[in-house]
Amino acid sequence: MVKVIQTNALKIIVGILILNLIWFVAAKCTATHLIVNPIDVYRQLPSIWSQSINTHLVASLNRIIIGVTLAVLIGLLFTYLLIQNKASQLIIESFTYISYPIPKLALLPVVMLLAGIGESTKIIMIVLIIVFQIIINLRDGINKIPQESLLVAISLGINKRQKLSHIVLPAITPDLLSTLRVAVGTAISVLFVTETYATDKGMGYFIVDSWMRINYMEMYAGIVILSLFGFVLFIIIDLFELFTCQWINKPTS
Asked: N or C: which terminus of the chain has fewer CB atoms within 10 Å of its end residue's CB?
């Protein structure tokens, strides 16, 4: 486990250095002030943070946590229904197959009409966009469970609750966490779009407002903080996987 953490830490450091190097070179090669030097941004970051950006980050964090949590719970509920019988499996898979290709951002005006322009709309959009990713990946995780394992468990007399807790959930946990990595990035992107409408709180609002005021320093600072926010969530998922799915990274002898 220590070796895995060290390897991931090295990847993080190298990735951050490469990203900032590209940013620095782009700033130097651009003769205008449109790309701010990352050194200047990092230097001004504490003062920008102390002004009001922390309240925007908290607002975005609440929306992300609520939206992703609801999407995961709905995904797990659908997963539970998938293993009940053939009829529920047919209904859920048919609905998912038809609904998944629909561009969910195009439904934003509809959601705003039905749910208003408050917090509900932003959370609903996050759920709508990532819940289908979760359902599809969990379904694929269930399909990867060896039938022999299920048959042996059934022959031993386990009930549906035991089947879910001892076979299905452990088997789909890696798929769920992999999906969450993608879903968190998607959720942040969606949140950025929804926070540009009818709100005065959130990182999306802060970045767009700074852009409209031609305050590029604050705009880039907001982008950095939003990126760090997503990065921290990504690390949390990685650590959770490291401790709950230790067999994935276990070396073979």
From this structure: C
